[in-house]
Design the sequence.
């Protein structure tokens, strides 16, 4: 387990292959998300190959960071609401029902991005998460994700 004890470190191995957040996917982003009070935070440094316009990050990367940060936040929020440890069973696993992203400013490729999430609503199997992406003091993207608990018969 990572020193920071991220939400994603608690995903069972059989659902830890996601391109955005799976610790078992060597080609993926392998994001790591933690609580910061009532918010959640992920730190991610894009690589030169994440380019869109030279010097700036590809929008699909930004969207996928918002996506997996938010589904991880949804799972953690559900455990927190239930007063349960993230390793306890049955596992709360969330998939994306809806992903909305507003690209507010170009996101520079130089340096770390800070992704912050806030739970807007928890209702039944659904969690709505608002997430921002910031480079330094500048918020470059804002997203909203409807995360839905993964049905047992997913697929
Ligand atoms: C597990 C670790 C991996 C992490 C994944 C990381 C993120 C991903 O990339 S996941 C892959 C992309 N997503 C998918 O493939 C999901 C495909 N879609 C599905 O399987 C289904 O449509 C699914 C599960 C989202 C919802 O279906 P279902 O379980 O039948 O939901 P349902 O019972 O109708 O709705 C539950 C609630 O969610 C809401 N909801 C469902 N879909 C949406 C949607 N597209 N937009 C907005 N709200 C939605 C419903 O309105 C309902 O809300 P309310 O209770 O307020 O009425």
Sequence:
């Amino acid at each position: 387990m990572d020193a920071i004890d991220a939400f994603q470190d608690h995903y069972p191995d059989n659902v830890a292959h996601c391109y955005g957040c799976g610790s078992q996917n060597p080609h993926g982003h392998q994001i790591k998300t933690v609580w910061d009070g009532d918010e959640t935070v992920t730190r991610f440094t894009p690589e030169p190959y994440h380019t869109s316009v030279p010097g700036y990050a590809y929008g699909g990367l930004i969207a996928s960071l918002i996506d997996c940060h938010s589904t991880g936040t949804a799972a953690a929020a559900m455990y927190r609401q239930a007063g349960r440890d993230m390793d306890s069973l049955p596992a709360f696993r969330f998939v994306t029902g809806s992903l909305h992203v507003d690209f507010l400013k170009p996101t520079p490729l130089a340096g770390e991005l800070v992704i912050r999430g806030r739970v807007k609503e928890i209702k039944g199997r659904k969690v709505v998460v608002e997430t921002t992406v910031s480079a330094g003091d500048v918020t470059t993207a804002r997203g909203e994700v409807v995360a839905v608990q993964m049905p047992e018969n997913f697929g």
